[in-house]
Amino acid sequence: MKKYPLLIITGICFLISISSVSIFAQAVRSAHVGLVYPLSTNGVSAPEISNAFSLHAISGVSKNEQSVAIAGVASIVKEHVRGVQISGVYNHAGISVHGAQIAGFGNYAKTRVEGAQIAGFMNMTGPVNSQIGGFLNVATDVKGGQIAGFMNKSGDVNAQVAGFINIAKKVKGVQIAGFINIADSSDYPIGIINIIKNGEKSIGVSYDESGTALATFRSGGRVLYSVLGVGYNLKETHTNYYALEAGIGARLYSGKIFRLNAELATQVLTDFREDPYSKNTLRILPTLRIGNRVEVFAGPSLNYAYYDRDDHHAFVKKFIWKNKNSDDFHGFHVGYNLGVQIVL
Questions:
Q1: Do 189 and 219 belong to one domain?
Q2: Hey, how many other C-beta atoms are within 10 angstroms of the C-beta on 303?
Q3: In terms of C-beta density within 10 A (0-12 exposed, 13-18 middle, 19 or more buried), how is residue 32 classed?
Q4: Which residue from 38, 73, 152, 329 has the highest number of Cβ atoms inside 10 Å of its Cβ?
C-alpha cells in the first residue's frame, strides 16, 4: 500500500463519486474533498451541492460555497461564494462573491464581489470593493481601489493605480498610471498623458533661464495635470542640445481670467554623446487667460542642476549654492519660465 498511495486515494474518490448521488441528500454539506471533478466526495452531483468547506488537489466544482473553497488549480462555483475562494490558477463564481477571491492567474464573478479580488494576472466582475491584479482589472464599479501591473478599467472608482493605463468614468480620488489616464471625471490624475472629459488639455511653447525652448503639452483634471515637453537649447551655439521635460502641475487658484499654477518638472539636455545636463525645477506660474483659449504665463523657478563636472556646461553661470568636491556638479539656482499656450 505504501507504493501506491495516489492510486488508492483516486480509487476511493471514484467509488465515493459513484455512490454519492444516493448516499447524500442534505442541501449543504459540511465538507467537500476530492482530486478533480467528479473524483470527490460529492461525485457527479457536485455542481448541484452547496458546501461549507471545499478542498481539492486539482480542481473542484460546486453550486455554492459558504465558507472556504481551496483548490490547487481551479475552483468553479456555479452560483455564490460566501467566504473565501482560493486557487493556484483560476477562480470562477457564476453569480457573486461575498468575501474574497485569490488566484495565481485569474478571478471571475459574473455580477459582483462584495469584498476583494486578488490575482496574479486578471480580475473581472461587476461592482467590487477592491481589485489587485498583476496585469488587468475590469469592473463596472469599484467602491475602493484598483491596482494592476498594466491596466485598470472601471465605471465609478475611488482610486486607480496601473503600470500603463487607467480607464474610468468618475474617479473620486487619485488616478495614477505609468503612461495614460482616461476618465469622464478625475481631479487628481497622475500620468504622462491624461485624457479627462471634464478636465483640460493645452499645447504651447515656453522658454527658460537656460536658453531652452520647449513645445509643451499639458493634460489633466481640474486640480492636477501633467507636463510633457520636447525642444532645443538656443544658448549653446557649438553643440546641438535637445531637451526633454516631464512633470506634474497643480492649479493653486483658478479664476476666469487669472490662474496660479505650480509645477514640479525634470528636464534633460543632451547631445546624445556626453552625459546629459539635468535639472529638477519647482516653478510658480501666474497665468493670464486672453479670450477663451489663449493663456500667457511667466514666473520664477528654483532649480537643482547636476551633470558631469568635466563637461563644463555653461547654461547657467550664477548659483546660490554649488558643491566643490565631487566628480559631478550639483547646484541650486534661481530661474524663470515664460510661455504661451492654447487650451484645446
A1: no
A2: 24
A3: buried
A4: 152
Indicate if 216 and 154 belong to the same structural domain: no
* Residue bearing the bigger pLDDT, 90 or 311: 90
Considering the domain architecture, whether residues 190 and 206 belong to the same structural domain is answered as no
How far apart are alpha carbons 178 and 122 in whole angstroms? 18
Strands 212-220 and 224-233: what pairing?
A: antiparallel
Domains held by the chain: number: 2
Average pLDDT over every residue of 118-136 = 97
Q: Which of 169, 196, 223 is the last residue of a domain?
A: 196
- Judge if the upstream peptide bond of residue 127 is cis by omega within 30 degrees of 0: no
Instruction: Return mean pLDDT, the chain.
Output: 92
For 88-122, b where at least 16 C-beta lie within 10 A, e where not — what string?
bbbbbbbebbebbbbbbbbbbbeebbebbbbbbbb
Where in the sequence is the domain holding 86, given as residue range(s)?
5-196
Mean pLDDT of 62-68: 96
Give the model's pLDDT for residue 5.
54
pTM: 0.86
Residues 105 and 121 in one domain: yes
Distances (CA, A) of 260 to 29, 33, 76, 224, 268: 66, 65, 56, 13, 25
Q: Residues 41, 181: one domain? A: yes
Find, among 115, 86, 111, the residue nearest to 98 by Cα.
Answer: 115
Regarding predicted confidence, which is higher, 307 or 77?
A: 77
Domain final residue, candidates 196, 219, 254 = 196
Rounded to whole angstroms, how far apart are CA atoms 182 and 322? Answer: 42
Cβ neighbors of 296 (< 8 A, separation 6 or more) are: 287, 288, 290, 338, 339, 340
Residue 45 and residue 56: Cα distance in Å, rounded?
A: 15
pLDDT band for 78, please (50, 70, 90 cuts): very high
Q: What are phi and psi of 197, to 5 degrees?
A: -60, -45
The per-residue pLDDT for range 260-306, each reduced to its tens digit, is 999 999 999 999 988 899 999 999 999 999 999 999 999 999 999 99
